[in-house]
Amino acid sequence: MDRLLVLVRHGQSDWNLKNLFTGWRDPDLTPKGIEEARTAGRRLKALGLSFDIAFTSALTRAQHTLSLILDEVGQPGLETIRDQALNERDYGDLSGLNKDDARARWGEEQVHVWRRSYDVPPPGGESLKDTGARVWPYYIHDILPRVMRGERVVVAAHGNSLRALIMAMEGLSGDEIVKRELDTGVPIVYRLAADTTIAEKNVLKD
Ligand SMILES: O=C(O)[C@@H](CO)OP(=O)(O)O
Fold this sequence. Notes:
It is a single chain. This protein is α/β, with parallel strands linked by helices. It has one domain: Phosphoglycerate mutase-like (Rossmann fold), CATH 3.40.50.1240. 42% of the residues lie in helices and 14% in strands. Helix 2 packs across helix 3 and helix 6 crosses helix 7. The mean pLDDT is 97. The chain binds 2-phosphoglyceric acid. The site of 2-phosphoglyceric acid (2PG) has 9 residues, from helix 7.
């Protein structure tokens, strides 16, 4: 049985381009982000992949990325489940601030801790651990059972919500996940074993 699970971070958003903390704010893709999403779809199609169900967050940039991917793989109307459990980590009071301005105000090290530590939340927001506490149960209850039934699943979500998911899927420690960065619009193709562990992983990059 092909237990296929594809994870993809949305293409470049307007606020990625402007270097703003985004979190639960809702900018759309830039023209570059649209192209990244289309390229992701073309790469999946080139491998002959298609899907039975799609998941995405409640945020436009992930939904738009997913719809461009589905267009490219020839499945524009595919059943899609949208859930805020897959939203980006909530950046709290940092949302909307420029990342360089934040470094100037609070210092390089503090901003790095807010962005990439495992369990230190930004003011008023979620740590990666907090994000995992909503992403992981959603994966276990809503996504994984479908994969294990043999449904081919694609998930379009966000840098930190996917990092939290990958940490659990790959059994990474807090120290390991803080060094892991996800490129925009680069699909990660997993095939799971019968015991839900990862049998195969393929990152679709140039
Ligand atoms: O601003 C955000 O929401 C995220 C993703 O773009 O940023 P960072 O990579 O700094 O966690």
